[in-house]
Amino acid sequence: MDHYSSEAAKTLVRTSPSKTFTIFEGTSEIQRLVIARTLTGLPVR
C-alpha cells in the first residue's frame, strides 16, 4: 500500500502544475471575453 500511495503522490505532483496552468489560461480567456463584450456593448452573461 505504501508503494502505491507514494507513486500516486508523485503522479499528483507531476500533473498538478498542468492543471493549474489550464485554470489560469481559462481565467484570462474569460477576462478577455468580458472586456471585449464590455467594449463592444454586448451583454456580459
Instruction: Compute the number of strand runs.
Output: 0
Number of domains: 1
Helix content: over 70%
- Intertermini distance: 48 Å
**What is the alpha-carbon Rg in Å?**
19 Å
The helix/strand series, from N terminus to C terminus, equals H
Mean pLDDT: 73
Protein name: Acyl-CoA dehydrogenase
GO molecular function: oxidoreductase activity, acting on the CH-CH group of donors
InterPro entries: AcylCo_DH-like_C (IPR036250)
Characterization of this structure:
The structure is a single chain. This protein has one helix spanning 2-40. The N and C termini lie far apart (48 Å). It is built from one helix and no strands. Helix content is 87%, strand content 0%. The protein has 45 residues and is an all-alpha fold. It has one domain. The longest helix is centred in the middle third of the chain and has 39 residues, at 2-40.
Quick rundown:
By secondary structure, this protein is an all-alpha fold. 87% of the residues lie in helices and 0% in strands.
Structural topology:
Elements (H helix, E strand, L loop, with lengths): L1 H39 L5
Protein name: Acyl-CoA dehydrogenase
Organism: Actinomadura syzygii
GO molecular function: oxidoreductase activity, acting on the CH-CH group of donors
